[in-house]
Amino acid sequence: MIIDGKALSNQLDVNMKQEVADLNATGLYPTLVVIIVGNDPASQIYVRNKHRKAVKLGIRSIIERKPADMTQADLLALIAKYNADDQVHGILVQLPLPKQIDETAVIRAIDVKKDVDGFSPENVGKLFANSHEHYPVSCTPKGIMTMLDHYNVNPEGKHAVIVGDSNIVGRPMGALLLNAGATVTYTHILTQDLSSFTRTADILVVATGVAHLIKAGDIKPGATVIDVGMDRDENGKLVGDVDYDNAVRVAGNITPVPGGVGPMTITTLMQQTIELAKVANRRVLTSVH
Ligand SMILES: Nc1nc2c(c(=O)[nH]1)N[C@@H](CN(C=O)c1ccc(C(=O)N[C@@H](CCC(=O)O)C(=O)O)cc1)CN2
Ligand SMILES: [Mg+2]
After folding, report:
1. Which of 2, 103, 172, 212 is packed most tightly, with the most Cβ within 10 A?
2. pLDDT digits (tens, 9 = 90+) for 40-91
3. What's its EC (predicted)?
């Protein structure tokens, strides 16, 4: 089966739009701030898509576009401004950042209660401790879990193999699958004989940035293959980390690029913005009574 992230995303939008309208009627306006520093063309597209999706759902969206030579101090001051603003529920700084800015310092500056990306040490800690509280999780792996659930791929007891060890995708992906009962193997750039691992995966998640790294022969017949890659082939066409045209004949389920994981990342961001707004509102109500 082709896992259609775009269709699922549009389907989830229907409920989210209604939920936002219902919250608006009670005086709560979920609000997301996205800060983008510099002119990376891909990042510009993602931020524009986030804004469009927010507008479509009735979520208030503030985009802060800043020059590539912005200082770290100025960025931290901007974050502090939105940390202090009660009307703002989620703050996201688009990654990657220009070289003069320390990513870790920026992530830590965002109020944990507004960390809609789930990148703060506190939220990452909750994920790896399998906390039963509500907490945001990196949107791409969280969106992948939503897709697996929707397509009835139950990770319990399955062997999940992650290719790529990034903080945004690989690491949180493995934690989510472990929490869902999978046996998880992490592989990365130093892994020897990668294929010997991927060929034993019931669920294979690939996030390396290497175009067509995974061939049909690297996949266990019937496996669920999730391709997080967004690479360019020799003709400049957008392709994934998986050789889709051949892999589709071996895999049981597979995500296309584009139209697979990407749209679910943005939908998950909207879900988490709404959730943070509701939690913030409950905090206000509790402190009043
Ligand atoms: N602060 C963050 N920075 C980054 C994140 C993130 O979750 N938080 N993730 C990625 C970029 N990203 C969202 O920010 C993102 C990437 C791709 C897509 C997407 O919809 N892709 C489409 C294809 C788009 C195209 O044509 O180029 C698809 O796969 O269908 C959405 C979000 C890094 N930075
Ligand atoms: Mg189901």
Report:
1. 172
2. 999 999 999 999 999 999 999 999 999 999 999 999 999 999 999 999 999 9
3. 1.5.1.5, 3.5.4.9
Nearest to 103 by CA among 176, 51, 35, 178: 35
pTM across the whole model: 0.97
Residues with CB under 6 A from ligand 1: 45-46, 49, 92-95, 117, 139-140, 168, 230, 238, 257-259, 261-263, 265-266
- Can you say how many angstroms the Cα of residue 45 is from the centroid of all Cα atoms in its chain? 15
Tell me what ipTM this predicted complex has: 0.95
Q: Are 160 and 174 in contact (CB under 8 A)?
A: yes
Residue type, 162: I
| Angle at alpha carbon of residue 278, lines to 128 and 55, rounded to 5° | 100
**Does a structural domain hold residue 205?**
yes
pLDDT at 74: 98
User: Which has the closest alpha carbon to 272: 89, 7, 95, 46?
Assistant: 89
Residue from 4, 53, 94, 227 carrying the catalytic annotation: 94
Helix axes 5-25, 41-57, angle to 10 degrees: 50
Name the closest-CA residue to atom 19, ligand 1: 262
Closest CA to 255 of 218, 208, 209, 203: 203
Instruction: Decide if 67 is inside a domain.
Output: yes
What is the three-class DSSP state of 3?
A: coil
Residue to probe by mutation, ligand 1, list 9, 46, 270, most atoms within 8 Å of CB: 46
Residues 143 and 258 in one domain: yes
143 in the same domain as 105: no
Chain segment 232-289, per-residue pLDDT in tens:
999 999 999 999 999 999 999 999 999 999 999 999 999 999 999 999 999 988 886 6
